[in-house]
Structures are given as structure tokens and as C-alpha cells.
Amino acid sequence: MTKAIKLLTALPPPQRHRLMALAREVAFPEDTRIFEAGAVADRFWVVRSGAVSLDQRVNDLRRVTVATLGAGDLLGWSWLFPPHRWDFGAEAFSPVRAYEFDAAAVLRLCEEDPALGLTLVRCVAEVLAHRLEATRIRLMEPHTTRGHHAL
């Protein structure tokens, strides 16, 4: 499996500086719900410190953690794709500091600078591909037979 892509370090410095001009520093105390699945996705974050768990509601009483994010990780991609609703929920697993970006402002920047927009979309696509692969591996683990070789 490839190393997880870090959005801010994946952007070339001039594009990173333009994007960071839109950043706002935020903090979430431990156990804070950052967003809920189905709610409007109008922003995203890059985690600076701490841990965030992405979860899926199984029923009214139970959530399953599908990923844990840490420093440098992108939190939220649903802002980029219609219908702009969160696919998962997110909760601060520990105290979290992050850069927050307003999706509308970032999308305007992408329209003004198509090269930045293309690079950003490619970075988000790489993040999604990496997380999909990690999920696939996690789902397959219980079904693989260790110590036995196929004939």
C-alpha cells in the first residue's frame, strides 16, 4: 500500500500559499462532533494535530469507525462533489487543531487558477484512492487465510 498523501505538502509551494491564504485555524476539543453524515458539506479541514475518527452510523445507537486521521490529513471531500453532503460523520478522537477552508472560497480560487484547481482535485482523488484501498484491505483481512498457501 502506498503512503497516504498529505494535501498541503502535495501542492507546489505557490499553489499551497494561495490556498493557505484562505485557511482559518480552528480547534476541536476531544469528543466534539465535527460533522454528521447527510449534513451540508460546505468546508473542509487539514488536521494539524490530534486525531479525528471518521464514522458511519449503523443504527440509532451504534457508529463504526471507518478511518482515523492525523496530522497532515485531509478531513472532508464531500464539499467537492454534488450533492455536497457529508458521506460520513467525524469526531475529534483527541483535542484537534486544524486549518479550516470555506469550500465556496476554495472553489472560486480553483476557477480563478485552473492549474491549482486541477492539482487540488488530483490530490483529493489520490486521498480517496488511498482510503478506498486501505478500506479494501481492512475488509479483506478477516477473510484471508494466514499460513496456508493456495494450490
From TrEMBL:
InterPro entries (alphabetical): cNMP-bd_dom (IPR000595), cNMP-bd_dom_sf (IPR018490), Env_Response_Regulators (IPR050397), RmlC-like_jellyroll (IPR014710)
Domain Cyclic nucleotide-binding: 7-76
One Pfam family matching this protein: cNMP_binding
SMART domains xrefs: cNMP
Gene3D superfamilies hit by this protein: Jelly Rolls
PANTHER family recorded: CRP FAMILY TRANSCRIPTIONAL REGULATORY PROTEIN (PTHR24567), HTH-TYPE TRANSCRIPTIONAL REGULATOR ARCR (PTHR24567:SF74)
Protein name per UniProt: Cyclic nucleotide-binding domain-containing protein
Organism of origin: Streptomyces cathayae
